[in-house]
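User: Can you help me understand a structure? I only have the sequence.
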Amino acid sequence: MSLEFLWYIPNQVTPGHRGEPVTTAHNSLDTLTTHALALEKHGWKGALLGTGWGRPDTFTTATALAARTTTFEPLIAVRPGYWRPANFASAAATLDHLTGGRVRVNIVSGKDDLAAYGDSDGEQADRYARTREFLQLVRKLWTQERVTYRGEHFQVTDSTVQPRVVARAGRPHPKLYFGGASEAAERVAAAEADVQLFWGEPLEGVRERIERLKALSAELGREHAPLEFGLRITTFVRDTTEQAWAEAEAKVAEMAAQQGEAGQNPHRRTAVGQQRLLDLAARGEVLDDNLYTTPGRYGGGGAATTWLVGSPADVANSLRKYRDLGVTHFVLSDTPYLREIERQGDRLLPLLAE
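Assistant: Let's start by predicting it. Here is the structure, written out as tokens:
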């Protein structure tokens, strides 16, 4: 299996994200370009760009970085309630055309400050039904011409996106990544996504979810290429195992002193996938070989809830075990971001090269 490694660019107005050094230019175009160029230099395919109301617009940021790089592939996180599918399909096709096929898309259906941009919360079933239509329609607009679509949430008539996306063998259009652990989310992923992203669960949990998603794909009559799987996780890498654990525990102690046990994200206990991660701490501070669960108790959310901790060899060994389950897309990160782009690109990725 061919493995792909991406990094993470938080795309935050507020400095200091997850221990990143606080500077006035932390999210300037020059700073972000420095990170993107370092990713190109140190073996990374590209980076996931964080999204949410109150952050810089993700698509605009991705476009600016694509213009300043040559191989960097932005994984652009977008929300169906923020974008109309035809508008997004056109924008993404244009950027894909201009960059020679470097666009990737991560569809996000989790909670946000929806009212701020005119969206509404709605029931979970409605939210994911809308997401499914968004995925269906975007894919049709990228691969077909004169599309007419009549869904409950979206409709278009005789629509063709110009210019066309860059199609090549194994990539008829930009890959559509999707996350979510609820039953409704998994049904959408099994039928419509290209890549299902998992957060840092133990191996057995990921194995169970892969088996369930494959069975769901068959049950739902999936019409696309087989679903692929990805892992979004913090990788805390140091020169030795002992150094890694000493620094990881010191960092968590600092988090505890600063934040207590309160989470930063008001929605962090409402998402099924996030709650699955938070529940892991009750099973032990360290699961599998080196999956550290304690950060989630002190404000670590999302991909920072659990960390893979160790030397480059330790972390590479853990990532290989996810690969053996069928995971082929990895979105890694740690702070300070630039230092870790270089360290992990030079020390970790070569151990995973095939």
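Now, to help you interpret it: The first strand starts at residue 4 and ends at 9. The chain has a mean pLDDT of 93. Let me know which part you'd like to focus on.
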